# Entry
Amino acid sequence: MRILIIEDEKELADGLEAILSRENYSVDVVGDGVSGLDYILSKMYDLVVLDIMLPEMNGIEVLQAARKEGIDTPIILLTARSQLRDKIEGLDSGADDYITKPFDSEELLARIRARTRTSGSSSSDELSFGDVTLSKHRQELKCGTRSVKLGHKEFQLMECLIINSSRIMPKDTLITKVWGPLDDTEYNNLEVYVSFLRKKLRFVKASVQIVTTKNVGYSLEVCENG
# Structure
């Protein structure tokens, strides 16, 4: 598996390269946004670790440009900024994940595994609930003739909700299944992704809705009146 690191702090970039190389990943490192975008557009990488604060072109601009060009490679943002608005900006721009400096190397490796693993739990390519169908291969949500692509984490969250559609999924369980064991600050990320999925369900005009049970979690329901 080939990973691209776009990071201008040489000591950190060298450390990341060493960590990933020990895990038998093939790693390339680049130190500015313009060069980083060129590397991403080569479509040679299975995952990108992208710093936000970069010279020449910042990480958000790189991310937006890559997504505009149709690049669907998983991208993990790496930054020293931890405010929720920065996270939301990155996620809105198409990031698959977000990790704040300083971080533990095992956490980063777990996030990389989560972003690149393939699901082998079912032989079927599709999952269905109500009037929506989730395509595993295309990471696409469909309702009738309308469809929309999902980001990797959006897909994992929707998959988890459909598989467990007969019950309310606790927030802790969803976070563990989609993000892995993380600290309490990640609750905001879950809420952001639920919001993304709700917008996409409305876009495809599904009767399926994500329902919040206060202080418990989320579940799927079919609302006959939309």
